[in-house]
Predict the structure.
Amino acid sequence: MLTAILSPRKTLKKAILCPKCGNEMDEMQSNKQDLALKRATFGIFNAVRFLCYGCFWEERKIRNKVERRNGM
Ligand SMILES: [Zn+2]
């Protein structure tokens, strides 16, 4: 499968599946908008982008640093 060749194996990470075709999505680098959000919220909120290599669907997820810390 094409996806398996393009994306490195991330067995420890929870896989994000594409809502359109069900393919495993790959994490992308944050862009300026994401960095602006992080700066505006003093690093509490962090946006992470995911890309599907099957249909090139892009998804943005917002992570809350504080929530994550309390959960651990
Ligand atoms: Zn897809």
Observations:
- Residues 45 and 64 are 5 Å apart (CA to CA).
- Strands lie at 16-17, 24-28, 45-52, 58-64.
- Residues 16-71 form one domain.
